[in-house]
């Protein structure tokens, strides 16, 4: 409104989407300065020179001018894209960080427990939740039947519902004389079962026809998924997801733990996660005429660090030798302990942790596999996220370990890597030389490559001889697709014209090295775990995979690059987000919850860091598919045939 | 300080001891006006004319002048006594209400579970409380033993203390990583046992040599008794008592319930009781270098109305047909629910209620009798306070009822009646005609007569023919001790010269009628209960009496007046404050607590109001000792002999 010239120290407001972070910054600063001040996870490889294009953002609101840069094609400029490092803040701005825009609910929660996957599941689909609603009529007292209010209520539960043992909270008791008489003894009870006894956690006068609900939540390091469950029938009626807002304090668990050690850091991380979960709960219910007070039950799963931060418990000992979490099995917690916006009398269950790097995502995830119900066979379950976690065994015994796979297969540390969401290349093939044939999630122009696409890409590069077994680029074979720039040597895999960003999509030698390191970490962990147990890969009955690859991962290609062992392909099953669906199964029935608790009790946790053979195994795996080609006979045949 | 003349509407402050009630009142009002404004329980029979002396008070601080009145002897005036109705407030005053001064701790808690009484007790004296303190050393984690903090702690409890199942509160878990490392794994735990499982309710870093404590409390309608118990050995190390500050809102349970129905009334009553219990806790610990945070366990007993008010639960349905309390067995409550100033993580147990007029004072009190441990014999237990409560039965069956005995035997509704405390005549005999021989508690000049003294007095008046069997005064026999004033006909029992107040102590015909009504209510309740069961008094193995009579109650005289049945005197035992000692036994061991819970479950509660025979029985008992002299053969013999 004011026409006075802008003073040098005048402040403008910048809001970043999807983080909802706002901050004030002096006029003349760049958007990149604001990003850095807000501690948002945007890195630039050119150091802010406007050449790499890493800091691309989209300005949704506010006026701005972008300085000169060749890194941003004209068509993107027209759509409001700009480079943060070259754009001065001279107005209040709302800025979208595109890298984080692309993650859609669909991509995260697809797959899951489809009808066809149900056959694998250890958990039961019987709906027998620990929290239930009853509408009852308590008889009025008479001189002949002058039992106390609570006793008459308890007798009604015995006589009409067979609930032999029940008790109630002080707050309920306090209101009981009143609510029993308000509607002639008609009351609606919410009960929570704990072993053989039921506890009345809420009592409402009259018959309340409204349903009650549960929520189930997967707390990922990067993303959160919240499911809303109707406690009438156990149906998952809504699923929403969002970013773990802690991202701005660090992208992986180690940097989060470091952040938590700062003064006030733990509190800040805890607030971020609770606030976002509360947002997602609100989002899940807002269109359905449901109040958060109608939510009486919540189940959570997540890795060990995420659960500590969610519970506001100091995680520092997780990353310090000898790497111990605060707890394994998690005691019952009340919503008000955590500030969770569900009914204050509601019940929270969190899946148990096994060790510092094998968390509740794995224990809950096991419910989505047949591991916990089969006795004779031996199964392997592997969850690949930023870390890889492995479990081997069956109903009788379980051994587990974690490996630092790194985020390569989630798209991290890879120039054109991205999560398995809209715009991601999810499968990839070369035809006619280096002509790319690919499939993009949601059919958009490709923005990047997700895990399953990267597996395909690496396998295709290798099998066609464009890269050597050690990952170095075979310049002679690549010919005109070869490129070299500030980032290093690379291969153009999709031409600029085809790409969403209007720039060549390049895989660099460094990206390839990162992918190889990741696959080596995972393979060597599997291999070492089996060796410790005196078992070969062939002894495995099945191999269950979960994580953020994208649903169409090619097992053949994963074997080709040596990520997974060269065993019968029919033994492989990809299950999607098992942490979320395991958490959902826990909510459905306490049998599932007890199964998980028992499994976690008997899991033997092996700390790979302390295994002297691990580095040997790892080094031997840093080739495509492996230094020992004898381990990958079918790939050997393929290479010889090729 | 100011010399300006006092304005008519100038206010002065009056504080009443022992109620700690302060209020401002215009200069020129009387102390009686202030008493009325403060709703304190002082009544006058002369209507404030300065003739009855009922409103005698002692001014401890402040200047005052008393108007003329014959009712206050000079010696008392010199001691600062004055009549509230005749004393204007012209200065800030601190005023002691003497009637309520006399109750001393000693009198209330005397007797109890003496060594000689222990043989009666159903409860165990084994010390096995539900809350205990352990000092433990949790091993540091190593790569080989990298269990979580909680798990290592739980394993220590298993290995060193045989505690197989333990869990912890969220707040403990939250601090565990820190406190385990602060003193090399040395920590002090407070554990609470619930059935087979222990819950860690507090954890302190290092070895804490301080003891932990419990409190046990009898919540009486008039008085509160708080005992402090060392949880190391179960010893009762301090006992304090005070008034139930609710007295100013009504003297008996019915008037308290009426008060609770006013807007804000329940809240006010609850605050009064909690505040006074907190005061007494403070008083119990202040000289002993104990903090209220060292108190982790509390047991309470009290009548049904008191427990409702203590728990802030609406008591209105107690006094309305069909007379139902909110609950019988009382769920676990946290100190912060009630605002009780003990450790916030502490445990509270309240003895169970049977019906609206048979409360936790009775159920806990049963522990102090052999009723709950004997199978073959039949016992009667009777607690006489403002109400009389009766229990008959043994380990296998229990029947109970209450009767509105009125407060006569506690000194209420009797002109010179008073509680069994310093200055009370506790035993009484006539010698040489109407010459009184009496024993006064603490050897003072007599101030009044307590329950045991009133029993003696009534028996002596009757047996010597000074009163008729219907309670009317035999003027001819009483001769010069006969008196008649505004209150009615009376007998001078102690001359003015001997009395503390310097006035004749008179028992009026009206007092005698009240005593007869009380004894009739109790006897007829006992009698009806037995008739309902088809049992005679002779079938009773023993007859246990508790209440505020005073410890030297003469059973012979109680039988003479027809309060108790004419059975073998050796069957009678007076036990003192069984509510308090029962509550203490509950604290000692959960076996006792469970015994009480189980007993309360199987007690059959008979509502006398609904028994058509009760009024007949009662009317027949309104004679001394009874209309049917055949029921009192030994008294018949005595009368004929006399």
Number of strands of chain A: 26
In percent, how much strand structure appears in the residues of chain A? 15-25%
The greatest interface between two protein chains, and residues involved on each side, is: A-B, 47 and 47 residues
Largest sheet descriptor of chain A: 6 strands, mixed
**What would the average pLDDT of chain A be, to the nearest integer?**
88
For this structure, the quaternary state is homodimer
In whole angstroms, the N-to-C terminal distance of chain A is 70 Å
Q: Order of strands across the biggest sheet of chain A?
A: 25-24-15-16-17-26
**Rg estimate of chain A, integer Å:** 27 Å
Low-confidence stretches of chain A: 1-5, 101-111
Question: Helices, strands, pairings?
Answer:
The structure is a homodimer of 642-residue chains.
Chain A: E1 11-17, E2 21-26, H1 31-37, E3 56-61, H2 74-78, E4 81-83, E5 93-96, H3 105-109, E6 131-137, H4 149-161, E7 166-168, H5 170-182, E8 186-194, E9 197-205, E10 213-219, E11 223-230, E12 236-243, H6 253-261, H7 265-286, E13 295-302, H8 304-310, H9 335-338, E14 347-350, H10 360-365, E15 379-384, E16 388-393, E17 398-403, E18 424-431, E19 435-440, E20 448-449, H11 451-463, H12 475-478, E21 482-485, E22 488-494, E23 505-508, H13 509-533, E24 542-547, H14 555-560, E25 572-576, H15 578-588, H16 590-602, E26 603-606, H17 613-620, H18 633-641
Parallel strand pairs in A: 1-5, 7-9, 10-13, 13-14, 15-24, 17-26, 18-20, 24-25
Antiparallel strand pairs in A: 1-2, 3-4, 3-5, 6-8, 8-9, 10-11, 11-12, 15-16, 16-17, 18-19, 21-22, 22-23
